[in-house]
Design brief:
Structural class: mainly alpha
Number of helices: 12
Helix content: 55-70%
Order of helices and strands: EEHHHHHHHHHHHH
Number of strands: 2
Strand order of the largest sheet: 1-2
Length: about 325
């Protein structure tokens, strides 16, 4: 068909533009569930590909051989790692009541290679680190007794829903990964320090041995946990920003929030001797915690504007 200008074709009449309407509540919920399933599925594949044995006899024998070089203060820090891991075991038990049968969360928590599976290895590995470095079973029993004496209370952290638990877990796993990095660095220095106080250089930058090497896959696990809980929190926030804004304010707002599990569990007089990098302690207080871990986490999940007390009011 020729147009009025000779051979110029007439414009074709097509379908009118379709304006995408906002998703309904049910539509957003369905999309949320789909995105959660995808994120959790990807995490479980990664976790299966990076598995390792909780016990490695040859590795722990090297830990035993190197133990004379380890100062008592570093043993105490390792006790702290074990205690934190065991407290997190109780945290996971409390979290189970919050997930309400939601399948992505059920898969993340309880499938093989899921959160519970990997964290259980951490308890075994940190306990073995203590035993192979000469910590008596009686001391480990004492740590267990303290754990059992002060049961987990989710209300101490503003955890009143699966979304709140997820948001808290993303931050807590980030902190726990930092704990392992700190302790690994100190083991590395202890092993390489001579009797004269000189530091022997590494043969190559990534060289690890003894407890430093034993904790490396645990740190990697914690990084994976940080990633999946952070992803889920971002997904939740994007799907239901109004509801999640209130949730995040409840978990991360207010003086002294959030706190690592040991702080919420134990009275100050009975907290183990954990150094900087583990818990909010009297030397640094809540402000140090906010600057070094809370603010970076809130930036990562895109929640900066919800916390003017931390970031200042937007211009």
């Amino acid at each position: 068909m020729q147009g009025p200008e000779g051979n110029a074709p007439q414009p074709k009449i097509g379908m009118p533009d379709i304006i995408q309407a906002p998703l309904t509540y049910d539509g957003r919920a369905a999309k949320l569930d789909e995105r959660r399933k995808e994120a959790v599925g990807n995490y479980l594949v990664w976790s299966a590909q990076t598995q390792y044995p909780a016990y490695d006899e040859k590795l722990f024998e090297s830990v035993r051989m190197l133990s004379p070089k380890v100062p008592r203060e570093l043993i105490i820090q390792t006790e702290g790692l074990y205690e934190v891991e065991d407290h997190l075991r109780l945290f996971r038990g409390a979290a189970k009541a919050e997930i309400g049968g939601v399948q992505p969360y059920e898969d993340l928590y309880f499938k093989r290679h899921g959160w519970v599976f990997t964290e259980a290895r951490h308890v075994v590995r940190t306990r073995n680190l203590l035993l192979y470095q000469g910590v008596p079973q009686a001391r480990i029993d004492e740590i267990d007794r303290l754990r059992d004496q002060y049961p987990w209370n989710p209300e101490n952290h503003g955890l009143d829903s699966k979304e709140a638990t997820t948001a808290y877990a993303g931050w807590q796993e980030k902190r726990t990964k930092g704990n392992y990095e700190t302790v690994q660095d100190e083991y590395d220095v202890a092993y390489r320090t001579t009797k004269d106080g000189l530091l022997v250089p590494k043969a190559h930058p990534e060289q690890k041995f003894g407890a430093d090497l034993a904790l490396e896959p645990v740190k990697r696990d914690e990084g994976g946990h940080e990633d999946i809980f952070t992803q889920l929190t971002i997904i939740n926030l994007e799907a239901f920003p109004e509801r999640m804004s209130d949730t995040l304010r409840n978990v991360f707002g207010g003086k002294g929030k959030p706190r690592m599990p040991v702080v919420a569990y134990l009275p100050e007089s009975e907290q183990l001797h954990l150094k900087e990098g583990y818990i909010v302690d009297k030397r640094f207080g809540p402000r140090h915690e906010i600057e070094t871990s809370v603010k970076p986490y809130l930036l990562k999940i895109g929640a900066k504007k919800l916390f003017p007390e931390y970031f200042g009011k937007a211009a």
